[in-house]
Specification:
Blueprint lengths: L34 E3 L3 E6 L5 E8 L1 E6 L4 E12 L4 H5 L2 E2 L4 E4 L2 E5 L3 H4 L3 E4 L3
Parallel strand pairs: 1-3, 4-9
Antiparallel strand pairs: 1-6, 2-3, 4-5, 5-7, 7-8, 8-9
């Protein structure tokens, strides 16, 4: 059964309200996309109003902010070192917000939600 954000059919007491209408497409919950380290692959998803959302499936590069010089540089992501949201994400090289990644310029932490924005923004960690 597809997951949905449609109104529930149960009352607070646990009784059944009855079905007033069918599920709508815009109420469906999409599949979770797990962004991995690799050559760039993106997927376009049509959203409400005919707009397009670019969802990355794999990315190899990210924009790293150096806090001292306040400048962004494009760096290559080598691998995921640590991911506090799920331990197996680090083993599978899945990037989420808060993940510590190893780049060609040193270790950095992901500060955005790359599955939503379509890019990876990193903050350089101090050694």
């Amino acid at each position: 059964m597809a997951k949905s954000t449609a109104p529930t059919l149960k009352k607070k007491t646990g009784g059944f309200k009855g079905k007033l209408r069918d599920k709508r497409k815009y109420e469906s919950i999409g599949l979770q996309v797990q962004l991995q380290v690799g050559d760039k692959r993106v997927k376009s998803i049509r959203t409400l109003g005919g707009n397009l959302k670019i969802t990355p499936l794999q990315l190899k590069e990210g924009n790293m902010l150096d806090a001292d010089s306040k400048k962004f540089t494009k760096v290559e992501i080598v691998r995921v070192v640590e991911n506090k949201s799920n331990r197996s994400y680090a083993r599978r090289n899945i990037i989420t917000k808060g993940a510590v990644v190893e780049t060609n310029a040193g270790k950095a932490v992901v500060v955005n939600r790359p599955g939503q924005s379509g890019q990876v923004t990193l903050l350089k960690l101090k050694q």
